[in-house]
Structures are given as C-alpha cells and as structure tokens.
C-alpha cells in the first residue's frame, strides 16, 4: 500500500537529513522541521496523506499476505525455492559491495570480498505493489547510504528490517533482529547466480560498471536456522571495473537490491 512506500521514503529521507542537514529537501512531498536539532517529517502532500487512511499505520506495521507476492524472474531464471518453504520477508538493501585488487597486476579482475547494507522492510510492497517495488533499488541507489549508527528505535526507522554483511569472504549474513522487530538471522552461502538484465542501471547517477548478478543463497546450516534461502533480485549497481587498473587495494562500489527471504 502507499503508506508503506511513504514509510520507506521517510526512512531513506531521514538519512538524507543526517548526511546533509538542511541542504537537501524532499520538495513537494512534505517538510522537515527541527526541534532541538532533531528533525522530523511533517506530511503535507497527498502522497503521505494516504498513510492517514490507515489507523496506526506509522506505529504498527501492517501484516501483508506474502503468499501473494511473486519474485521477479531473472533473464536466465534462478532455481525455485525448495518445496515447503514460504516467503518470510522482503527487504531493499542499500550499501556497498567490497572488492580487493592485486596491485601488482593491472589486468587482474577485482575480487569480491563481501558487502554491507542496511535493509528496509518492503514486504507489503512486494505483496501489494510489485511494479513499484521493482523501481526502488535504482531509486535507493541515488540516495545516500543510511548512517550505520542510525538510531533504529526512532519512529522514522521503524521500517528498517536489519543489516546485511559478511562474516567472511563467502558467508553472507542477514541480521533482521533490531530493537523494534525480530525477523530472524541467518548465515548463507552462494547457491546460484544469474546476470542482471542488460538494461539494469550502470551505477549511481547512471554511471558505473553495471549491476551485480541476481543470486540465490542457501542456508549454510539449514537445520540450525529458520531463514533458509535468500534471493538477491532487481539489483542496481555494485559491479567493479573489469580490471584492477588504477584501482586501490580495497574499494567499495555502491549498490542496492531486493532481498527475498524464505523460511521453514
Ligand atoms: C515487514 O515484514 C513483515 C514480515 O517479516 C511483515 O509482516 C510486515 O507487514 C512488513 N512491514 C512492512 C511495512 O512492509
Ligand atoms: C543454477 O540454476 C540453473 C537453473 O535452475 C541450473 O541449470 C544450474 O545447474 C544451476 N547452477 C548451479 C551452479 O547450481
Ligand atoms: C594477471 O592477471 C591475469 C588475469 O587474471 C592473469 O591471466 C595473469 O596471469 C596475471 N599475471 C600475473 C603476473 O600474475
Ligand atoms: C568493506 O566492508 C566493511 C564492512 O563489512 C567495511 O567496514 C569496510 O570499510 C569496507 N570497505 C573497504 C574498502 O574495505
């Protein structure tokens, strides 16, 4: 529903203010106010007024029928989720892909060494307005990365699902437990990948080296966790240059993606 979209925009917009107080505004969609230096959002347009039609929309996340949500299909389709699993959560990730380079070899390709992203709960968008959801990774890519020390108990952060990072170079971790919500945690390993569509964005502000592959991740220890499979879909950005020429020994590339999380 649209109020969910509004909440997502608020969460991202909060980080805009944190990054550049007073310098950037969401013209026409509402106003930022300040009380003792702490900004808050005053909805003043029809976009955010949609939220007011749902009592408690800002304090109680709605429950959506995730069984209605359908994952986007990669150009070369990824394998389907294992039988018996159900869709548990859908998040937008916004962060960086990390790479290292062999500085002694300019023709060597950068090596992926992990990623770090803040996850935003878009489960209801996935169930109700998938066409809108599909556009969010490329929109989020052009917004600043939320401060990692953001106060996730703040109402503006109510739609943060959690955080995604790597425990080692091959072990992506999803931590969906915050002070406000407990959606689970899990360690994963890469199961399959598929190139992003050829028309996927190149990077921030339309510049860069392309969008990272779509992925299927499986639980590292299926018996030891509830969250079983994760799909990274509709990626935006994150690809490194083809070679290490001119690159630092370690560098980051901005990205965003949808994460579809399946559970027992
Ligand atoms: C957040 O995710 C949960 C599922 O983990 C879902 O029940 C809830 O409705 C979601 N909230 C929003 C705002 O999408
Ligand atoms: C990836 O998935 C495709 C399609 O299901 C399959 O043909 C292929 O064997 C899989 N690759 C790996 C490495 O599992
Ligand atoms: C440099 O990297 C290229 C591409 O990976 C590789 O073929 C070549 O052997 C490497 N050269 C050296 C000196 O390691
Ligand atoms: C890579 O990712 C980690 C978090 O996993 C981060 O702390 C680090 O600064 C990143 N960047 C580089 C260039 O290593």
From TrEMBL:
Record's keyword annotation contains Signal: yes
Keyword Hydrolase in annotation: no
Pfam families: DUF3455
Protein name (record): Malate dehydrogenase
Annotated signal peptide: 1-19
Organism field: Friedmanniomyces endolithicus
Top-level division of the source organism's lineage: Eukaryota
InterPro entries for the chain: DUF3455
Membrane spanning residue stretches: none
Keyword vocabulary terms for this entry: Signal
């Amino acid at each position: 529903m649209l109020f969910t979209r509004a909440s997502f925009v608020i969460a991202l917009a909060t980080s805009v203010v944190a990054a550049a107080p007073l310098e950037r505004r969401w013209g026409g969609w509402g106003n930022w106010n300040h009380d003792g230096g702490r900004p808050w959002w005053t909805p003043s347009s029809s976009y955010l007024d949609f939220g007011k039609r749902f009592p408690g929309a800002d304090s109680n996340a709605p429950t959506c029928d995730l069984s209605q949500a359908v994952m986007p299909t990669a150009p070369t389709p990824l394998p389907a989720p294992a039988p018996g699993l159900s869709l548990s959560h859908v998040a937008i990730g916004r962060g960086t892909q990390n790479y290292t380079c062999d500085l002694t070899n300019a023709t060597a390709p950068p090596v992926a060494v992990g990623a770090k992203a803040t996850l935003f709960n878009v489960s209801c968008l996935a169930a109700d307005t998938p066409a809108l959801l599909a556009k969010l990774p490329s929109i989020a890519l052009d917004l600043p990365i939320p401060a990692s020390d953001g106060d996730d108990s703040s109402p503006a952060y109510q739609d943060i699902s959690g955080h995604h990072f790597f425990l080692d170079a091959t072990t992506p971790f999803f931590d969906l437990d915050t002070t406000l919500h407990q959606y689970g945690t899990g360690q994963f390993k890469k199961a399959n990948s598929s190139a992003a569509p050829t028309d996927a964005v190149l990077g921030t502000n339309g510049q860069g080296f392309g969008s990272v592959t779509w992925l299927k991740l499986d639980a590292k220890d299926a018996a030891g966790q509830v969250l079983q499979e994760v799909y990274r879909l509709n990626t935006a950005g994150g690809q490194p240059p083809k070679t290490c020429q001119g690159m630092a020994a370690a560098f980051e590339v901005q990205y965003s993606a949808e994460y579809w999380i399946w559970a027992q």
